[in-house]
């Protein structure tokens, strides 16, 4: 805790937050220790992961401490804790270690497939050249003169190989975006086809040309040209299977996040389940709002409180009949729970009121802070009366005036774990550099943005697990459901086929647009 306070006090914008007494520290520690002492009887398999905050702008206060804060909280004291709200069991820790071991196997498999593809590609490009050079090396004196025809064929082979090399580099040698659990079926089939094709050419070349030492050099060169032409056609086939086949939308998938129910719809073509999962994850990081477990804490604590309200005791002992009293207590507890919707209504109304109030304070504070910044033109820089600053220094100068309002707003909306002070300063410096308005600066904080908007270390999950009843290499079909699971939540994907649409045509003659004006005595026309 003291390390976090030292880190926070190094910034000038937070000098007024670090000037609180040791008594306030003891009160804050006692307030956070009391819930933990009540939870001392929980299972031994449950552990709490404690992570030190990296450059904390805001303390990770629990939501229950936030509910008891008034609008003037934070003026004199600051309570900081570095304890995470997440807890995982020993089984989860064992599963994480197993996933790390599996990732080593995936890396070996990926490098092995890249090595096989590179060796096969090198064999493909060296084969036509070897077909042309081997007769010149082994029995050059016995070859028939070829002349201009062979020289033209040499130029043709050279340019075709160059085109094939560029196309292969663009299609196959791209940095992989993810590791998939199974092989890509079409790519594996293409590699097998290329290997069989080149092997058959070498077999024919060895039997009909090398053994017999054919002297018709023009025919040998044309044989090499035919190999290059066939390789170009295989490359066209690869483009159709790997790139063009999946472009036409055939299925609509609904992606639902298991924790909060947020959903999106996407259109996909003919893809396997594992490749469809990759497309879903790429769109998830772009379209879904960042996962915030702190927003679920209030609902869970409220549900636990109402479930704890039902307690039945048999005071007369196990041998006596106290069913009437038990039924009365159950009915009283049920009536008490029936009023829980009123509590929920007033809780949400009070939370919305606090959010709107602190949002208004934040907007006013940011607008006032931006009024102190003025961009100097080139001719004004020589005669500027004040001190000139770069964007970083300007951001550090105006940040303290808005820091308190921003801190309280992020705590109220439970976004403090996604915004460190360094990230806010960088964003403020970026806005000042590009002459952006206060509204543009606040856009990131007033509403939760997509997952990619935030720091990568705060949301990125390196390991996803694909759960499917069908084989992951099989294609998408109507009604298939698969799940993408990470440590904190799951994405449930439901596949529906786009229905066949029958569109008919009806012709309307433009000359049929004739109208008659019907006049009546009571009309105004």
UniProtKB/TrEMBL annotation:
Compartment(s) of residence: Cell membrane
Annotated Polar residues bias: 74-86
Sequence similarity: Belongs to the Vang family.
Entry protein name: VANG1 protein
Gene this protein is translated from: Vangl1
Disordered: annotated segments: 1-86
Bilayer topology annotation: Multi-pass membrane protein
Keywords: Cell membrane, Membrane, Transmembrane, Transmembrane helix
Keyword Nucleotidyltransferase tagged: no
GO terms for cellular component: plasma membrane
Basic and acidic residues composition-biased segments: 36-45
Biased composition (Basic residues): 19-35
Organism: Psilopogon haemacephalus
Residue spans crossing the bilayer: 111-133, 153-172, 184-204, 224-244
């Amino acid at each position: 805790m003291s390390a976090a306070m030292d880190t926070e006090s190094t910034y000038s914008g937070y000098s007024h937050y670090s000037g609180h007494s040791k008594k306030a520290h003891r009160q804050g520690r006692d307030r956070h220790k009391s819930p933990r002492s009540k939870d001392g009887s929980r299972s031994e398999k449950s552990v709490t992961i404690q992570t030190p905050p990296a450059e904390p702008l805001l303390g990770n206060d629990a939501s229950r401490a936030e509910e008891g804060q008034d609008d003037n909280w934070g003026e004199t004291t600051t309570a900081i804790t570095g304890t995470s709200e997440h807890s995982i069991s020993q089984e989860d820790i064992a599963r994480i270690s197993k996933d790390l071991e599996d990732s080593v196997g995936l890396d070996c498999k990926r490098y092995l497939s890249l090595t096989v593809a590179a060796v096969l590609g090198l064999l493909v490009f060296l084969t036509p050249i070897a077909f042309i050079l081997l007769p010149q090396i082994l029995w050059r004196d016995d070859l028939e003169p070829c002349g201009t025809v062979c020289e033209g064929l040499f130029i043709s082979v050279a340019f075709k190989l160059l085109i094939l090399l560029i196309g292969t580099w663009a299609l196959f040698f791209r940095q992989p975006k993810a590791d998939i659990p199974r092989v890509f079926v079409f790519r594996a089939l293409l590699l097998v086809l290329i290997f069989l094709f080149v092997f058959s050419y070498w077999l024919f070349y060895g039997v009909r040309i090398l053994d017999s030492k054919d002297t018709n050099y023009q025919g040998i060169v044309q044989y090499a040209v035919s190999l290059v032409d066939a390789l170009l056609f295989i490359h066209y086939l690869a483009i159709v299977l790997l790139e063009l086949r999946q472009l036409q939308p055939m299925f609509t998938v609904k992606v639902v996040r298991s924790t909060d129910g947020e959903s999106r719809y996407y259109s996909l073509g003919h893809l396997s389940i594992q490749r469809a999962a990759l497309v879903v994850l790429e769109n998830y990081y772009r379209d879904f709002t960042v996962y915030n477990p702190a927003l679920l804490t209030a609902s869970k604590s409220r549900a636990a409180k109402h479930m704890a309200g039902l307690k039945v005791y048999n005071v007369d002992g196990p041998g006596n009949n106290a069913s009437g009293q038990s039924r009365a207590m159950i009915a009283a507890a049920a009536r008490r729970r029936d009023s829980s919707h009123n509590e929920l209504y007033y809780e949400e109304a009070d939370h919305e009121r606090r959010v709107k109030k602190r949002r208004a304070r934040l907007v006013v504070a940011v607008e006032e802070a931006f009024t102190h910044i003025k961009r100097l033109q080139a001719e004004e820089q020589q005669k500027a009366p004040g001190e000139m600053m770069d964007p970083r220094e300007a951001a550090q100068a105006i940040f303290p005036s808005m820091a308190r309002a921003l801190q309280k707003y992020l705590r109220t909306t439970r976004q403090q774990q996604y915004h460190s002070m360094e990230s806010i300063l960088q964003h403020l410096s970026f806005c000042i550099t590009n002459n952006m308005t206060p509204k543009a600066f606040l856009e990131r904080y007033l509403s939760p943005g997509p997952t990619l908007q935030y720091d990568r270390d705060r949301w990125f999950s390196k390991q996803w697990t694909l759960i499917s009843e069908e084989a992951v290499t099989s294609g998408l079909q109507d009604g298939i459901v698969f799940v993408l699971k990470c440590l904190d939540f799951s994405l449930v994907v439901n596949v529906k086929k786009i229905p066949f649409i029958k569109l008919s045509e009806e012709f309307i003659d433009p000359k049929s647009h004739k109208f008659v004006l019907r006049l009546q005595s009571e009309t105004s026309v």
